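From the methods appendix. Each design record in this collection lists the tokenized structure first, followed by the designed amino acid sequence. Records were kept in a plain field format so they could be parsed without special tools. The example shown here is representative of the layout used throughout.

RECORD:
FOLD TOKENS (993 positions):
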């Protein structure tokens, strides 16, 4: 398997010997394009940003990206990344006694000055303990020595952190942009001066918004029996601890660069936070409370960031995101400007967290220009009464109007999010959830019939269980017990049987139960957490990994009744999170709670019945003199300044006058030679168009067909075929073939080299690849055929691609293909592997003599079959001898190939020549299995590293590259002549007969 340099040291990666055995090995190796490459000793403070979930999830987190850039842009600080290892990788590390290391330099976590955890979800707590222990850091804060790193945490869950306080040294409350660097540098400077650890903790605890749990004492609240933070143990420490508040997001522009590549992330696109905070005041939503007030990014900065990010990253999808994106003050002109800039680049746009009302039709038109999939809304509750209880300012009429607008614009489906377990909820409220989805689908059917286009509308109803969170009006409410949740889910299933075509999805209530306990928990839960971790609990938010029985045992063994945290809490009681001040005035949450019990609404802040917030042009905004509503939550909002800022934003976006809605686009009636298409472009109307009607709309066009609309056409030039030779070594050898297929087009996009796309509803870049390799097998000879729409020097392009690709992706050369040049499939009939067998492992089974014996046995046998296994339990027998041509020990060519692939060490080189046919070939792993077999655990009996050294046409003892067109054309001409001769002979024989 491929060797892995560890970045700055150049030494072998500590995981090189075994990482190919785990799922998605590239999760642990780094080397992505855009990752920070800095020398370990160039900064005074080294910080590991630790995300307590797998790479695939953590790489999508926006806060992680923000801090990564801020810290690496500061010469004093260096930031690297680490994610929790999956179950298989943790087992490998423990078996070998190896530490968890960072992606950038492969340094163990214990060698950093600061390790910062992102607290996004209570059910990642056991993963934090996994990372600490594997990183070589004592689990408990009290057990850490003077030299151990500072363990900090931040994020939304940091506002109620008591169950975790036994294990973290300091917690950053609120926004982290300004405080993280200050805290980290202060810690390191004090450490270099020899200040004792406890004094260092006291110093950082005096910074605004930093909570050091070990410096505070707890007491028991008489009404609940829960532990509450009672007093500070050091003079000068704040109580309560006030959050950090970044008053202007524009001080820290959202990153337009960062690591791109590796295994596919959950949200594999460029997302940008356009605002922080929310105006709506939903009573269940903790984020809407703790991130007040609303702060918006400058729209011009947003557009510039997106355009720059697309070029730097190569992404073909972007997303605007915030807690309530539709409430961004100039969302309409912003979306128009984004789509105007990105639609020509074939970049699609996603908009998250849309409300189910209030979006103008022109906004939906703009989104539709660069988006083709469904859209998601969150009504939260099925009945109007329950929507009033939770303060969700949306009506049934608005929901159905939204459905009509969505389906009339050609969207295939919509997804609706709801919750069960809300305060005062009754059976009829629960059953109404599915009925809302059913009515939305009926609207979709009606629209489809009226427009005579599209297939069955898709409506997905997703239902989760409400967890009453701290710092919300529902923090005193009881949480539904498991039996209550199961009963409500049964009601939903009943309704679902009568709602044909509505897809109902329900969340596992067991994870919600555990989430609720830890969300409202106190310090006593730290002992339960530690016990559960040591009993094997990991990835508790993953339903297939949750060990709820183990958790129940741990609660019992610690003498703690979890139900004590889930019942109704007296409003007069002191709470385990009261020492954290998130900025809300005392009494505000209680007032909202009492309103909820009476089904009374509170108006959204910063607007009057949706007035100001939805202006799409400056003219209407200036004319609107209505007073903006203050939600009176205690957060000091300057509404006059807010209004002024929004007027400036509208003006900057050029929203000077009212925008006239464009006439509805006509359906495509007859498309002549439909060209390559990609979602996100304007439709091309080919129906005859006469003069406009008096009102400016277009006359109706007779619909001549039914069914879905054809995709929009892309205007692009004639395709030119190119072929490139490249290698993949180091981290790239561990990237799956599918991930490689995603990565390569991005390199072209970074250079703004236009790729030709296929036709159809799901256009793809026109690319062909050489045969896929197993994970961990490096290659010096990979081939890519690609269609571009420009004339370009292929060798110059190869050199440029090398500069904008991930570490280990080496572009070597390129050629332009002519129309009749054969494809890759017909340009390859042989491949050559170089294999490095560690001498020590070989000597353990008999040395080189044993190797020669096994080769003689294999080559002398008429056939040798091994089993090739696929996903879903499928398998087939492969005859290794059918493809294997030769095996040579100590061939000097093998040594050269291995050195070029960065495979170094004391090994015995082996050269394997293999035939490739249109039926396929044999893997090097199957050849090695035929030589030495497998262990009972299914592992290689003898470890090895391999590289595909050459790939192409066999030419004597040489293998000619598919870039050698003269040989390919000669072979093609000979094959064509032979085919024609055979055809002529057959015709002659037929005539004679």
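DESIGN:
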């Amino acid at each position: 398997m491929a060797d892995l340099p560890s970045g700055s040291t150049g030494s072998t990666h500590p995981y090189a010997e075994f990482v190919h055995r785990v799922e998605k090995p590239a999760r642990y190796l780094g080397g992505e394009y855009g990752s920070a490459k800095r020398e370990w000793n160039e900064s005074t403070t080294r910080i590991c940003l630790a995300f307590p979930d797998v790479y695939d999830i953590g790489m999508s987190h926006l806060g992680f990206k923000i801090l990564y850039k801020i810290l690496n842009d500061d010469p004093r600080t260096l930031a690297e990344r680490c994610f929790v290892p999956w179950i298989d990788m943790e087992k490998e590390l423990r078996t070998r006694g190896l530490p968890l290391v960072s992606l950038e330099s492969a340094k163990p976590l214990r060698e950093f000055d600061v390790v910062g955890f992102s607290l996004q979800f209570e059910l990642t707590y056991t993963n934090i303990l996994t990372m600490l222990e594997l990183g070589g850091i004592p689990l408990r804060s009290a057990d850490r020595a003077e030299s151990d790193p500072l363990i900090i945490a931040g994020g939304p869950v940091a506002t109620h952190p008591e169950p975790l306080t036994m294990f973290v040294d300091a917690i950053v409350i609120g926004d982290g942009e300004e405080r993280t660097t200050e805290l980290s540098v202060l810690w390191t400077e004090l450490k270099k001066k020899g200040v004792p650890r406890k004094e260092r903790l006291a110093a950082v605890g005096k910074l605004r918004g930093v909570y050091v749990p070990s410096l505070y004492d707890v007491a028991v609240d008489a009404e609940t029996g829960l532990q509450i933070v009672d007093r500070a143990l050091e003079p000068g420490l704040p109580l309560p601890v006030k959050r950090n508040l970044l008053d202007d997001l524009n001080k820290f522009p959202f990153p337009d660069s960062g690591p791109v590549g590796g295994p596919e992330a959950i949200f594999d696109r460029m997302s940008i936070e356009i605002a922080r905070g929310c105006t709506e005041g939903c009573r269940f939503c903790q984020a809407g409370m703790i991130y007040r007030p609303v702060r918006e990014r400058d729209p011009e900065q947003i557009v510039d960031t997106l355009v720059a990010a697309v070029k730097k990253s190569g992404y073909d999808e972007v997303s605007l995101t915030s807690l309530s994106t539709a409430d961004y003050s100039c969302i309409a002109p912003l979306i128009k400007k984004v789509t105007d800039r990105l639609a020509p680049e074939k970049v699609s746009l996603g908009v998250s967290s849309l409300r189910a009302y209030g979006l103008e039709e022109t906004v939906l038109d703009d989104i539709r220009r660069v988006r083709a999939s469904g859209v998601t809304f969150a009504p939260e509750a099925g009945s109007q009464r329950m929507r009033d209880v939770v303060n969700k300012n949306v009506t049934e009429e608005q929901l159905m109007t939204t459905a009509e607008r969505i389906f009339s614009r050609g969207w295939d489906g919509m997804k609706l999010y709801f919750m069960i377990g809300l305060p005062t909820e009754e059976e009829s409220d629960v059953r109404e959830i599915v009925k809302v989805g059913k009515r939305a689908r009926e609207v979709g059917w009606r629209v489809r019939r009226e427009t005579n286009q599209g297939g069955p509308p898709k409506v997905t109803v997703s239902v989760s269980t409400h967890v009453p969170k701290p710092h919300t009006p529902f923090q005193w409410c009881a949480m539904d017990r498991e039996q209550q949740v199961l009963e409500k889910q049964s009601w939903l299933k009943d309704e679902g049987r009568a709602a044909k075509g509505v897809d109902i999805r329900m969340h596992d209530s067991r994870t919600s139960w555990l989430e609720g306990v830890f969300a409202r928990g106190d310090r006593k839960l730290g002992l339960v957490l530690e016990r559960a971790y040591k009993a094997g609990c990991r990835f508790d938010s993953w339903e297939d990994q949750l060990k709820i029985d183990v958790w129940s045992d741990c609660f019992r063994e610690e003498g703690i009744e979890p139900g004590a945290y889930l019942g109704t809490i007296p409003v007069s009681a002191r709470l385990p999170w009261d020492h954290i001040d998130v900025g809300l005035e005392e009494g505000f949450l209680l007032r909202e709670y009492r309103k909820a019990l009476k089904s009374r609404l509170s108006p959204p802040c910063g607007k009057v019945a949706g007035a100001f917030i939805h202006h799409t042009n400056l003219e209407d905004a200036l004319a609107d003199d209505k007073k903006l509503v203050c939600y009176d939550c205690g957060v000091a909002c300057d509404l006059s300044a807010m209004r002024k800022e929004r007027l400036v934003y509208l003006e900057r976006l050029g929203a000077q006058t009212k925008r006239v809605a464009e006439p509805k686009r006509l359906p495509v009636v007859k498309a002549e030679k439909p060209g390559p298409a990609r979602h996100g472009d304007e439709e091309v109307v080919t129906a005859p168009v006469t003069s406009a009607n008096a009102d400016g709309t277009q006359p109706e066009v007779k619909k001549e067909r039914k069914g879905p609309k054809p995709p929009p056409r892309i205007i692009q030039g004639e395709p030119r075929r190119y072929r490139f030779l490249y290698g993949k070594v180091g981290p790239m050898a561990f990237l799956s073939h599918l991930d490689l297929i995603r990565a390569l087009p991005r390199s072209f996009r970074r250079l703004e080299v236009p790729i030709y796309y296929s036709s159809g509803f799901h256009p793809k870049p026109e690319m062909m690849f050489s045969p896929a390799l197993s994970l961990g097998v490096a290659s010096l000879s990979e081939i890519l055929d690609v269609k571009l729409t420009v004339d370009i020097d292929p060798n110059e392009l190869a050199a440029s691609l090398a500069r904008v690709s991930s570490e280990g992706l080496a572009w070597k050369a390129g050629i332009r293909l002519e129309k009749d040049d054969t494809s890759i499939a017909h340009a390859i009939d042989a491949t050559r592997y170089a294999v490095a067998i560690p001498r020590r492992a070989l000597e353990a089974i008999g040395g080189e003599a044993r190797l020669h014996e096994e080769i003689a046995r294999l080559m002398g046998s008429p056939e040798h079959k091994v089993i090739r296994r696929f996903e879903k339990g499928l398998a087939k027998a492969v005859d290794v001898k059918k493809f294997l041509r030769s095996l040579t020990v100590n061939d000097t060519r093998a040594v050269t190939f291995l050195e070029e692939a960065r495979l170094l060490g004391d090994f015995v080189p082996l050269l394997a020549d293999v035939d490739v046919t249109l039926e396929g070939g044999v893997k090097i792993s199957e050849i090695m299995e035929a030589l030495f077999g497998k262990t009972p655990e299914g592992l290689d009996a003898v470890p090895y590293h391999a590289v595909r050294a050459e790939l192409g046409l066999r030419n004597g003892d040489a293998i000619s590259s598919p870039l050698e067109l003269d040989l390919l054309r000669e072979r093609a001409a000979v094959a064509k002549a032979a085919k024609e001769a055979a055809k002529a002979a057959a015709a002659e024989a037929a005539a004679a007969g």
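APPENDIX NOTE: The radius of gyration is 31 Å.
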